[in-house]
Specification:
With about 400 residues, the protein is α/β, with parallel strands linked by helices. The chain has 13 helices and eleven strands. Strands 1-2-3-4-7-8-10-11 form an eight-stranded parallel β-barrel, surrounded by four helices. α11 links the parallel β9 and β10.
Length: about 400
């Protein structure tokens, strides 16, 4: 189903979608709009001099970018309507990714209808600014992030055929609409059931017989539409010890893709790295370096490439003092990027999940909220649009690599 980009009324679509609540990133978001959080005035860090983060990343053959939004549900946001935010994005980034606007909740109001108004805004804006665009996501395979109609859908007398129709038509509609513009997609996002340690069941998987049938069809359909595209499985593991079990589940999923000949090109590592407690040995959050290297070795050994798709830092265990906290966040991030960039022959683009603290999804993600009520300072720029030590740490990691 090839839906022409200009057959929809953007004005009428925007009217219905402007206040749509969607989660900022992975399956652990709660979908609520981010409040404006009171925080003490940050210590100024000065004006950025020298190359942009994207320029530095490109010396290693990759791009740096960020998530961005279209029509927010609040006055200011990390969106294309916020000129101060877009100035940061344009100054630092070579690629953007829609934060929520490609997800089924935003683009598929019904089984036979589509709404691309918000996504079109981002793609058009990026094109006008000379920025590339990544796709996120063709299928977020978790029931809580399906539109209500899909969770309750009656697949009829031929459920396999009907489920395949819904999925393939969706992927074709999106990829054909942005053919020539978007070539790298998170085809499937977060498909692991943490209780079962196996791919999650959804209305689609029950209709088609297994979660694997759904995931495999998504990638095969995307490959048919994008023979030269980069097809990514995206998930939220990173190097903290708490992620070991999830990493093992992801490895099994990737091994299954290879055994079944599923055309998956890369693993998207969201990299929402966490400082939920302090490691006395390092003064920052604990991290399992050896186990994380083993995981990356397994992934790359199977022939998968890597992307960092949604980077930010959760600073919950750090002190409220801004200078001390920013220094620890930068230290932790530098350690992470130094390790990841050792895999430079396998590592492609690197994207932050937002560039400015005020609009980062962690401000309204309950497990990341600070007990002192202060903002999470997990992005490269503070809420006054000033570069932070985190920005310097990323730049220095790119330069050193």
């Amino acid at each position: 189903m090839n839906i022409d980009r200009f057959t929809l009324s953007r004005r009428s679509a925007l009217a219905g979608m402007a206040a749509l609540p969607l989660a900022g990133c992975g399956g652990d978001g709660n979908g609520s709009p981010a409040p404006v959080v009171s925080t003490p005035a940050p210590t100024p860090t000065g004006t950025v001099n020298g190359p942009s983060l994207d320029t530095l990343a490109k010396t290693g053959g990759r791009s740096f970018g960020s998530a961005i939004a279209s029509t927010p549900g609040r006055t200011e946001a990390g969106s294309i309507q916020n000129s101060r935010y877009t100035e940061v994005v344009k100054a630092e980034c070579g690629i953007v990714v829609p934060e929520n606007e490609m997800k089924w909740q935003a683009t598929r109001p019904g089984p036979d209808s589509y709404d691309f108004a918000r996504l079109d805004q981002i793609v058009d804006w990026a094109g006008n600014e000379g920025l590339a665009v990544r796709g996120h996501t063709l299928l977020w395979h978790r029931p809580q992030w399906f539109p209500d109609w899909l969770n309750a859908y009656d697949f009829g007398a031929n459920p396999v055929q009907e489920a395949e129709r819904l999925l393939t038509e969706h992927i074709r509609a999106v990829t054909r609409r942005y053919r020539g513009t978007i070539s790298s997609y998170d085809v499937v996002n977060e498909a692991i059931d943490h209780d079962r340690n196996a791919p999650i069941e959804t209305s689609l998987s029950r209709a088609m017989g297994s979660p694997e049938a759904v995931l495999d069809l998504a990638f095969h359909t995307a490959r048919e539409e994008l023979p030269q595209g980069q097809l990514v499985y995206n998930d939220y593991m990173s190097w903290e010890p708490a992620h070991r079990k999830h990493c093992a589940d992801v490895l099994r999923l990737l091994e299954g893709f290879r055994k079944r000949g599923v055309p998956v090109d890369a693993l998207g590592i969201q990299s929402h790295i966490e400082i939920f407690e302090i490691d006395p040995a390092t003064g920052v959050g604990p991290y399992a370096e050896r186990e994380w290297r083993d995981f990356l070795d397994e992934v790359t050994g199977m022939g998968y490439r890597l992307l960092i798709t949604e980077f930010d830092v959760k600073d919950k265990a750090l002190p409220g003092d801004i200078a001390a906290r920013d220094a620890k966040v930068a230290d932790f991030a530098r350690r992470y990027f130094d390790l990841m960039l050792e895999y430079g022959d396998h590592l492609d683009d690197i994207l932050a999940w937002g560039m400015v603290d005020r609009f980062n999804w962690l401000q309204y993600f309950d497990p990341a909220k600070r007990a002192d009520g202060l903002e999470v300072r997990g992005t490269p720029y503070d809420s006054s649009y000033r570069a932070k030590p985190l920005r310097t740490a990323i730049a220095e990691a790119f330069s050193a690599a």
